[in-house]
Backbone:
């Protein structure tokens, strides 16, 4: 008797991001631009709220859907920001990170054989998540000439009209692309015309630098067909606390909670107290972090321009997505050579699916001093190759 992976698991390759993390861990003096994690700590008042909850012995399970006080605050925050009203009892689910919310939606709302259009390049979990749920992925590669925005044209060209659902993420990981409300309108129209469910990952919604974030759920006819994922990892620097949430009509949240209650039971209790304080008291800290990210974004983009490396102007999240410079012909070789020669880690764009080839993801969620040193090393590496 031997253990063999299930077919659906065997179809999924190992994460391309993880491979480069493991290579980097074996080297000294590494500057990693590969990790999508804030270098800031969780705001102090949110940490104090978490500490206080522990000191008071608040370590029991919460309701499956999360503490009602937190769901009320989430609903109020979304109403204030986007004018969307979600019932905290029936349309909000607190999850163990936004990633769990995505997985729950796929497993509870997709049937085996459903076709799911996935806008790419994308976060590495979407395509495996669809596969684990028994669905079939339709690759929808966005294009650098469109600044990696999702367009009706690429949806039509990829065959997304035959899909049952669409997965999208703006502001985008890995490209840093954003979409305005006007740019989202044709996508919403396409979803309505072809009766698509929409899974919209908006975890980077607070990190949009050139315009305010628009949730696709705010557009006509979209709230009732959209599951929105968000959380506290990025804007509030709470990655390790693993807390997210999903917003959707009652029937979707009920189905997702049915899976959630048998797998996770409830999201961790302590982070829920931190999240309530974060929503109540930490807007200034979020604004300060966003300002710092924007400074870093502009610095990194300017350095790429100075060294002659093509890079579209990313306007959200904390990533840029430069093109692989000559004389290299593929991103993986470039990333390996850069890591070996200069101890700078970047992730090949191929790891993020269709449309990522010939690009690299660089995160600026690290200190400005390290960013300056990484850009100096990168410039030296590119110049030495000429």
Residues:
């Amino acid at each position: 008797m031997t253990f063999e992976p299930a077919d659906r698991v065997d179809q999924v390759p190992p994460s391309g991001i993880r491979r480069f993390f493991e290579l980097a861990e074996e080297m000294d003096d590494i500057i990693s631009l590969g990790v999508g994690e804030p270098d800031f700590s969780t705001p102090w008042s949110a940490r104090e709220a978490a500490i206080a909850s522990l000191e008071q012995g608040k370590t029991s399970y919460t309701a499956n859907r999360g503490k009602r006080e937190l769901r009320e605050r989430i609903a109020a925050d979304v109403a204030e920001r986007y004018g969307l009203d979600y019932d905290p009892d029936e349309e909000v689910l607190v999850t163990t990170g936004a990633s769990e919310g995505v997985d729950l939606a796929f497993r509870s709302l997709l049937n085996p054989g459903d076709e799911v259009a996935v806008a790419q390049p994308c976060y590495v979990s979407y395509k495996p998540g669809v596969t684990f749920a028994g669905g079939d992925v339709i690759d929808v590669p966005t294009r650098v000439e469109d600044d990696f925005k999702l367009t009706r044209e690429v949806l039509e060209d990829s065959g997304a009209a035959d899909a049952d659902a669409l997965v999208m993420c703006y502001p985008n990981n890995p490209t840093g692309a954003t979409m305005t409300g006007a740019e989202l309108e044709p996508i919403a129209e396409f979803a309505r015309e072809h009766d698509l469910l929409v899974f919209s990952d908006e975890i980077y919604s607070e990190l949009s630098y050139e315009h305010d974030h628009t949730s696709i759920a705010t557009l006509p006819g979209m709230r009732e067909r959209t599951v929105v994922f968000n959380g506290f990892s990025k804007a509030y620097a709470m990655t390790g606390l693993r807390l997210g949430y999903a917003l959707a009509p009652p029937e979707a949240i009920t189905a997702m909670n049915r899976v959630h209650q048998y797998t996770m039971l409830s999201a961790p209790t302590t982070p829920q107290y931190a999240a309530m304080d974060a929503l109540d008291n930490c807007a200034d800290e979020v604004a300060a972090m966003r300002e710092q990210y924007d400074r870093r974004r502009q610095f990194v983009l300017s350095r790429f321009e100075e060294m002659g490396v093509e890079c579209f102007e990313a306007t959200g999240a904390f990533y840029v997505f430069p093109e692989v410079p000559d004389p290299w012909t593929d991103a993986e070789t470039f990333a390996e050579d850069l890591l070996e020669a200069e101890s700078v880690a970047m992730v090949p764009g191929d790891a993020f699916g269709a449309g990522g080839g010939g690009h690299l993801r660089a995160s600026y969620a690290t200190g400005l001093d390290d960013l300056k040193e990484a850009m100096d090393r990168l410039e030296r590496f590119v110049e030495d190759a000429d």
About this structure: The longest helix spans residues 283-306.
